[in-house]
Design a protein that fits this description.
Chain lengths: ~270, ~270
């Protein structure tokens, strides 16, 4: 264990704590990752995993080598979205991630536990340790982009993940429901604390377009994406619709066949560049 | 403290524990409540509070004297749905509940704390104690029906509420999203454990009817209400739509002006009789 090399931010003296330096985990020795983007939300249930999934799929379609680290340990949904069943195996290089049909490398706790249907009830420190292992012991190989599906919220667990892995930027996911300003504000403040740029805001469940008549309905109230992006100085924003076809594809493991509206795809493409 | 008068369900001997008898709270001495219905869900975010609200509004429209005990202490949303602002006061008879425009008597932690916008982070035992107080110290007066908006989930807190208050029956709220069978199953098992009949199942966010062309869309997958009610032997089920007009009314304090579809209203009427 190495000691912290920083000065204390309060008293200015050399920090006596070993903690900060200990948090950082080394990348797997046989891997090289060009860019890490974390997908976060101040609240669960807003579709963070869908955004992480579509960010990776969009990058894959642009020809990038992509991985997804599913750090949403207590609610892992990435393997199911890509139709990945079964576990993984270890080689001399590390734990081998699963591969989607299109070649996206995926690691999730679901692939390492015996009964993936049972809920995982873990302390925060165990969750953070598991995510660290995913970074250090998984043989990612060479990646242009690693997408991290973060634990929801702004508590201990996401903070530790930010301290463990050199995240380059964050995509914040929201929904148009009430209190969203407060919830997005918490995510943005967490990024500021961690010194991570917010690359974009994605408003999920933003509208529904009637497939029969084409009318657009804002089911959960008026979109706040534009106003929130302006207020929090987030450079890009996208709106994802409620779409039963997308839900059906993702539930059935067909995430790689999902087509988002053109404006949303353009925003995701701008984020991954 | 009186001792438990039950026999142990495992060994058949007289129970040595004082706990069960201690949980039960006496009703406020100046109140008389004919019937208590709890609204529960195995998971948060499915619209439990909306169902509790509409159950009370439906009863009020039938001429019943109705109260709502907001036991969702960490996410109290009942006062806002009825446009109730400000606190409450104490008389010689107990704490006076607020009154909605239509005369529904309402008590919620939001009315007793100084900063209702700040999240309440309490231990389970404190939450249960607060709910007990709502039962014992609130001057409900004479009520035909008290609706309890339960804490979400099937953990300690809802269990203690069931042990504190003589609930006559439970309405279980679900959504059509995945894993719903497991989540509803947990609620049904909790009711069985507590020896409380499940009076009905309400599937919220069940469909969306395009207000322009009339087409009905099952936004979050096929309805499972009928199949689940059959599977768990629940006598009635209702489907509530996603409806921006309802959301807008409830967000703006106009819950008493909400009109549900006729089939849903009929089901709620059958439950409250």
């Amino acid at each position: 264990m190495s000691e912290c090399t920083h000065d204390c931010s309060t008293c200015g003296n050399a920090c006596a704590s070993k903690a900060p330096a200990d948090f950082a985990a080394p990348l797997n020795a046989n891997s090289k990752i060009r860019r890490v983007i974390a997908v976060a939300s101040g609240k669960g249930g807003v579709g963070k995993s869908l955004v992480a999934t579509m960010l990776a799929v969009t990058a894959m379609r642009k020809g990038l080598k992509v991985g997804i680290l599913d750090a949403d340990i207590t609610g892992p949904s990435i393997p199911k979205a890509f139709g990945i069943v079964g576990g993984t195996f270890q080689t001399e290089f590390g734990i081998e991630p699963a591969r989607s049909t299109g070649g996206i490398r995926i690691i999730s706790l679901n692939m390492l536990i015996e009964h993936p249907d049972e809920p995982v009830v873990w302390r925060g420190s165990m969750i953070a340790g598991c995510v660290k292992q995913f970074w250090s012991e998984v043989h990612w190989g060479e990646l242009d982009l690693l997408v991290i599906d973060m634990p929801p919220g702004t508590g201990d667990v996401p903070l530790t993940v930010f301290q463990s892995i050199p995240v380059d930027g964050v995509v914040v996911v929201s929904s148009p429901q009430e209190l969203v300003e407060m919830i997005v504000g918490k995510s943005v403040r967490m990024c500021e604390m961690m010194n991570k740029p917010v690359l974009g805001l994605v408003e999920n469940m933003s509208y529904f377009q009637c497939p029969k008549c084409g009318e657009i309905h804002e089911l959960y109230g008026e979109s706040k994406a534009l106003a929130l992006a302006g207020h929090f100085k987030i450079p890009r924003h996208a709106r994802l619709p409620v779409d039963p076809k997308i839900a059906q594809l993702v539930d059935g493991g067909g995430a790689e066949n999902v087509e988002l509206p053109a404006d949303a795809t353009a925003c995701l493409e701008a984020i991954i560049v």
